[in-house]
Specification:
This protein is an alpha+beta fold and 408 residues long. It folds into two domains: 360 residues, no CATH class; 34 residues, no CATH class. Helix content is 58%, strand content 8%. The chain is built from twelve helices and eight strands. A four-stranded mixed sheet has the order 1-2-4-3, sandwiched between helices. A two-stranded antiparallel sheet has the order 5-6. A hairpin with a 5-residue loop joins β5 and β6. The longest helix has 48 residues.
Length: 408
């Protein structure tokens, strides 16, 4: 496991270095294009300052920024005991040093992600739609996938790389929009200079424009490429932690086939954080491997279901090679010395509740998250009191009993 984490860190550092070069080269090209040859250093300095500021902000509170942007709300054990129990199980199986904080996103689209700087301060967020549609084995598979991201140290990389990507996009957009609004003035300025100097300046400006368009594309491709590899590794980690690959495979199928609209709070920078592409809609054509934030779910499911001999990394590696006909994404050092037997699924949990009952439970969960008070009258009627209800007592509409509202 430590060899896998070490290899993962090396790949992360390499990617971060390449993205830093792209960012600094973009600043240099824009500085030279706008201010001439002497402005290249100025552009390089500005790009460095922007990157450092955003990197400090992301390291200090990037996880909270992502959680707030996703409209995730922290929950307690009382809100969803099963979810807490599963997270605790996977925390123990992965030997994490601390229990991740748990958040719920009030959205019908099933999805989940993990974030944080390190395992000691990690968080796991799941949508209400995910809780409504998955049984225990499937939910355990999804949580194990996210816990694997934490265990593999993916969460800091995603936060920092996402901010670096955001810096590249920000600088590019500011420059391109500035060029659009000042194009007439720029033409007059260049035409007033000497012929040779004006042509050289125009050439540098064209190079800067090309760099501003190409840099975000290159950064996106780098970001997405390693994000897809990390999804495969997290799937392998989930199978290893649960010893039941079918749980995650079934969950991914339900997520892929769900008819709900796409996740509202997701954006291009946060999309790779999720277990499945939040922009994918039912009926949408398959995105190409270069532009997709995630590997095809159908392929991920086939790999998991080909793990018929065990749940170790080597078993995932063999299944990956059989399905994709390509080299394994699992480092060679993580393939030896481990035998993990498969287990059977929980038969009782395979029986799904009726859809209306599931959605009612999710509605109650979100009411608890939003501080509703729940009362049960002696006539068995359940009352759900919103937080803006000012009185300290309420009358049962069925039998007329007067009930005290706790905490008021």
């Amino acid at each position: 496991m430590w060899e896998l984490i070490r290899a993962n860190k090396r790949n992360s550092i390499l990617l971060m270095a390449v993205m830093a070069i792209v960012l600094l080269a973009l600043g240099l090209a824009i500085g030279a294009g706008v201010f001439g040859g002497e402005g290249a250093l100025f552009g390089l300095i500005i790009a460095t300052v922007v990157w450092l500021i955003m990197m400090i902000v992301s390291y200090a509170g990037g996880d909270q920024i992502f959680l707030a942007a996703s409209n995730a709300k922290p929950v307690t054990h009382d809100v969803h005991p099963q979810l807490f129990n599963i997270v605790e199980e996977m925390k123990i199986a992965a030997a994490l040093p601390a229990m991740p904080k748990i958040y719920i996103i009030n959205d019908p689209a099933p999805n989940a992600f993990a974030t944080g700087r390190k395992p000691e301060t990690a968080s796991v967020a799941v949508t209400a739609g995910l809780l409504a549609r998955l049984n225990r084995d499937e939910l355990q598979g999804v949580i194990a996938h996210e816990i694997s991201h934490i265990l593999h140290r993916d969460i800091l990389f995603v936060t920092l790389a996402g901010v670096m990507l955001g810096s590249i996009v920000l600088i590019s957009q500011v420059f391109l929009r500035g060029m659009f609004y000042s194009s007439m003035g720029s033409r007059r300025r260049y035409s007033s200079g000497g012929k040779g100097g004006g042509e050289a300046q125009i050439l540098m400006l064209v190079i800067a424009i090309i760099a501003a368009i190409a840099a975000p594309i290159m950064a996106y491709l780098l970001y997405f490429a390693l994000s897809r590899k990390r999804e495969y590794l997290a799937d392998a980690g989930a199978a290893r932690l649960t010893r039941y690959p079918e749980g995650l495979a079934s969950a991914l199928e339900k997520i892929a086939n769900d008819p709900s609209p796409q996740l509202q709070a997701a954006n291009k920078v946060t999309a790779p954080m999720y277990i499945a592409n939040p922009f994918k809609k039912k009926g949408q054509r398959k995105l190409s491997d270069l532009t997709s934030t995630h590997p095809p779910i159908s392929e991920r499911v086939r790999i998991l279901r080909n793990m018929t001999h065990g749940a170790a990394f080597k078993d995932y590696s063999n299944a990956f090679a059989a399905v994709t006909k390509s080299a394994s994404v699992v480092p060679v050092t993580a393939l030896a010395g481990e035998e993990i037997a498969l287990r059977d699924g929980d038969a009782k949990q395979e029986k799904q509740q009726h859809q209306r009952e599931q959605m009612r439970q999710v509605g109650d969960i979100m009411r608890k998250v939003n501080q509703f008070a729940f009362l049960t009258c002696s006539c068995a009627l359940k009352l759900k009191i919103p937080p803006n209800f000012k009185a300290d007592k309420v009358k049962c509409p069925r039998c007329g009993n007067i009930l005290d509202i706790p905490g008021r």
